[in-house]
Structure formats: C-alpha cells, structure tokens
C-alpha cells in the first residue's frame, strides 16, 4: 500500500513546517496591529431599581 510509505511525504511535511517556522512566521509576527488598544475610562451609569407593580 503506497499511502503508508512515509518516505516522500515525511520529507514534504518536514520541509513545509521548516519553511513556515523559519521564513513565514517571523514575517507575519513582525506586523504591528493597526488598531492598538487604548486605555478607556469606564463610565458607571447609575441604575434605579425596577418598581414591580405587585409589591
């Protein structure tokens, strides 16, 4: 059964992971996000309790 022979596919998988890990991933991680999170002040709204008609 040729699909169980790991000889050509293991090398392809290893080469693709090395390519991703060493070349593509550092290039992707070098991008900075365009929308940096800002420190927003939280606004607290005053809530009033609900008046139930049966109480």
TrEMBL record:
It is a single-pass membrane protein. The keyword Transcription regulation does not apply. InterPro entries: ATP8_metazoa (IPR001421), ATPase_protein_8 (IPR050635). Its main location: mitochondrion. GO terms for biological process: proton motive force-driven ATP synthesis. It is found in: Mitochondrion membrane. The keyword Nucleotide-binding does not apply. One of its GO terms (molecular function) is proton transmembrane transporter activity. Keywords: ATP synthesis, CF(0), Hydrogen ion transport, Ion transport, Membrane, Mitochondrion, Transmembrane, Transmembrane helix, Transport. Belongs to the ATPase protein 8 family. This is ATP synthase complex subunit 8.
């Amino acid at each position: 059964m040729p699909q169980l022979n790991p000889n050509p596919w293991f090398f392809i998988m290893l080469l693709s992971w090395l390519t991703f890990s060493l070349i593509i991933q550092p290039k992707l991680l070098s991008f900075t996000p365009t929308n940096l999170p800002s420190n927003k002040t939280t606004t607290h709204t005053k809530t009033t309790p609900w008046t139930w008609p049966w109480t």
